[in-house]
Amino acid sequence: MSTRKTINRFAVIGGLCTAVALAATGCGAGGPSSTGSAASSTVNVLVEAGGHAELTGVAEQCKKDTGVTANFVELPYDGMFNRLSSEFSSGNVSFDVAALDSVWLPSFKDAVQPIDELFTDEAKKDIFPALVKEANVDGHFIGMPAWTNAEIILYRKDLFDDPKNKADFKAKYGYELAAPTTWKQYQEISAFFTKDGMYGTDVKGAVETEWLAHVLQAGSPMVLDADGKVVVDNAAHKEALDFYTSLVKSAPSGAAQVDWAAAQNLFNQGKTAMTRFWAHAYRQIPKDSPVAGKVGAAPMIGGSAGVAGVPGPWYLSVPKATKNTEAAKKFVKCAYDHNSMGIESSLGLAARISAFEKYQDKTGYESFKPLIETLSGKATQTRPATAKWQQIVDTVLIPTLQKAVAGGDSAALLADAKKQIEALLK
Amino acid sequence: MRVAERTRPDAGKAAAVTAGSSVPSTTHEGGRKRRGVNREGLEAGRRSTRTILWILLAAAMVLYGFPFLYLLFTSFKTPIDTIAVPPTVLPKEWTLENYVNALGRSGVVASFINSIQTAIISTLLSLVLAIPAAYGITRYKTPSGRVFIMAALVTRMVPPVAIGIPLASMMASVGMADTPIALSIAHTTISLPLSIWLMSSFFEAVPRDLEEAATVDGCSRLGALWRVVIPVVSGGIAVTAIFAFLASWNEFLFALLMTAIRSQTTPVVIANFQTQFGLDWGSMTALAAVYSIPVILLTLLLQRKIVAGMTLGAVKG
Fold first, then answer.
1. What is residue A48's three-state secondary structure?
2. In principle, which of A382, B188, B260, B289 could form an S-S bond with B178, CB 3.0–4.6 Å?
3. Cα A186–Cα A191–Cα A193 angle in degrees, nearest 5
4. Closest Cα to residue A225, out of A108, A307, A234?
5. Are A372 and A357 contacting, i.e. CB atoms less than 8 angstroms apart?
6. In this complex, do B172 and A265 lie within 8 Å of one another by their Cβ atoms?
7. Nearest CA in chain A to B185
8. Is B271 in Cβ contact with A34 (below 8 Å)?
9. Least confident of A106-115, A127-136, B141-150
């Protein structure tokens, strides 16, 4: 009897567990299935959490225009590459459209479909040249720009407009205090504002993009030339690195560890008078920040090759493994058509020149003119198209930069970096 | 009985009292004084030891509790306060705005339900598999059992990402992608090995005499396990269940790789506040604070069982 009761109890518990498990198999609380097998008018869009807002309004419009409904799969940036690699390598994807960071395009070029038909002559004219070039991998366009960014100069307008500062600066340097346009001006203005617990600028040792923008301004391609040869030790790289490290004395201590978040915090807290930062940050200054309403925007500074920045675009791509190609392409085209809607989102960016131009004279969008100018700069270039780029950045460029801002010998560091990059690319 | 005696909390104290009473009494004044002085000295020594212990305990509590308190305080800060340089512990101005933002974000409620669902299924799976496995290993003590228990740990020696990516592909190929059960199975690979080890140590602590007595009273082996052994190790089961629940509740990597729209859990949603374009500290900490409430409640609810389980695991019959 006891055995029977025991077995009955186990059977009940086992049955319950099975019931819960079976119920769970089909009943996630998040919404519809993400793995629809048949073609439908619903597309799953994989997007980095920060970019989700950019596409929300667009998705609503696309539903009205084309009947395509978009479900968003939102993931943190740090995990997205792993997820994409995992799904692309398995050939079984849970999404029909993916928003890809530009640096990932070379890695996933074989897993996404060409979308050449969307790159009409008219479209190519309305997209920044560097982005048109980057979207074309091995002769095919594989991603439609959804939004783009670039570093510009953000500065404390209140400090720059202060009559005493103006007079003192002119007396010391012999020219008017204004937003810097050259390396020399940036150095001098930074030095001028470094006093009384305040710093002229930040120096970001934990991110490489800014130094690479200076490399472009000095007239060299970044790290690799057009033939894929490693040029990280050339004169332009050294000149840019020396300029970068020269600013350490006008920046808060601990430069080697300063990344985007730290630099943004310093500026928003009113600790730095200027920062070279992504344009979206202009619209994201907290309302209760001591610098809110006191910030001006200017194009990125120029070197011997003129103004240049490193664009930070995201592209919408359609995986080869999707069974919903038609609806996916419809959504990508629609997102391009309504690209300017992204500007109304919390991130406030777009990819089309016309979209930025539409807003550039409106209050609150003062960062757009400098952004357009920076992205249109003759020396502006996207990152080298190599699948090893992220590895080069993480294992060579950032450590090199950190050693340099800590006082290392730039020539020796760059020579060493060259050897390491060559070894990585072998 | 021996177990009960050993585990009596006041056993040490009683022994001390007994030892005290066994000291031969004396009428000698000097002896009394000396004894008095000795007692005072002993008492003072105990007091200072206790004080030191309390200080150490307080320090350990601060050490462990401070990060959570800091997270909690940050969740009540204004946006600019969260990024203050240098940082402040207490908010300058208290606000609930972060909670409104975090809980108002689309998908948060669904992710909570998914987390609960996944953690419960994973915990049940771990217990249903670990209890018989651990019981069999400890009671039959076969060489294959010893190999099995060592082999069970192998999955813990492999980097999770090495398991996660193929597991995600497998789940997708059998049509289980983006489901709580798929994620629960993945989480069970984390919690099962240690659940087996934990349950083994608890079963080891149960004297075989108890089962033999139950068998003499007419219970089958299974009946003895169900009626006698499992009630005795219920504290251990609670500890194992909490461990398995927490392993699933806080797991991030598998959730990142295996969930999308239907079954995304809250750790992924919390991580979504850190984007390429900035970090929303306030909302992130607010959601993390809310997410920790069920675990705190569960731990408080099972506190007595946990303590009993720890004691049970500490002694062997």
1. strand
2. B260
3. 100
4. A234
5. yes
6. no
7. A21
8. no
9. B141-150
Using 50, 70 and 90 to split pLDDT, how confident is the model at A19? Answer: low
End-to-end CA distance of chain A: 73
* Residue B52 confidence (pLDDT): 94
Alpha carbon distance B120, A17 (integer Å): 10
CB contact under 8 A, A289 and B227: no
Q: Could you tell me where the DSSP H helices lie in chain B?
A: 2-7, 11-21, 29-74, 79-82, 97-104, 108-140, 143-151, 154-157, 160-173, 180-204, 208-216, 221-224, 230-232, 234-249, 253-258, 266-271, 281-301, 303-314
Nearest to B79 by CA among B93, B65, B59: B93
Of A25, A34, A261, the CB nearest to B261: A34
- Percentages of chain A per state (helix, strand, coil), in multiples of 5: 50, 15, 35
**Residue A32: what pLDDT?**
58
Find the angle CA(A85)-CA(A86)-CA(A90) to the nearest 5 degrees: 110
Interchain CB contact of A48 with B (< 8 Å):
yes
ipTM rounded to 2 decimals: 0.75
**In CATH terms, is domain A151-310+383-425 a member of 3.40.190.10?**
yes
A residues 336-355 closer than 8 Å to B (CB)? 347
Residues of A in contact with B227 (CB under 8 A): 2, 6
Distance CA B22, CA B263 (A): 67
> Which domains does chain B carry?
106-314 (1.10.3720.10)
Chain A residues with CB inside 8 Å of B109's CB?
Answer: 29
Q: B260–A10: do the CB atoms touch at under 8 Å?
A: no
What is the tens place of the pLDDT at every residue in A267-277?
A: 999 999 999 99
Query: What are the residue boundaries of the structural domains of chain A, listed by start?
Result: 42-148+312-351, 151-310+383-425
Contacts of B229 (CB under 8 A, 6+ apart): B135, B203, B206, B210, B211
Coil/strand/helix, residue A301: coil
b/e map A271-281, b = 16+ CB within 10 Å? bbbbbbbbbbb
Q: At what angle do helices B303-314 and B281-301 cross, to 10 degrees?
A: 70
Q: What is the largest CA-CA distance in chain A?
A: 102
Using CA atoms, how far apart are residues B168 and A283, in angstroms rounded to an integer?
39
Q: What pLDDT is stored for residue A8 in this prediction?
A: 56
Q: Which residues of B touch A289 (CB under 8 A)?
A: 79-80
| Nearest residue on chain A to B182, alpha-carbon basis | A25
Please identify which residue in the block is written with the tokens 């909670």.
B99
- Write down the residue that tokens 């959804």 correspond to: A146
At B111, list the tokens. 């992710």
Q: What is the pLDDT of residue B4?
A: 40
Q: How far is B97 from chain A (nearest CA, A)?
A: 13
A412 — contact with chain B (CB < 8 Å)?
A: no
| Helix pair angle (B160-173, A77-90), 10° resolution | 50
Point out the residues of chain B with pLDDT beneath 70: 1-37, 309-317
Which sign, positive or negative, has the C-alpha torsion B208, B211, B214, B218?
negative
Condensed to tens digits (0 to 9), the pLDDT of residues A196-248 reads: 989 999 999 999 999 999 999 999 999 999 899 999 999 999 999 999 999 99
pLDDT of residue A272: 97
CATH 3.40.190.10 fits A42-148+312-351, yes or no: yes
Determine phi and psi for B297, rounding to 5 degrees.
-60, -45
**pLDDT 10s digits, A386-396:** 989 999 999 99
Residue B139 token pair: 């009671």
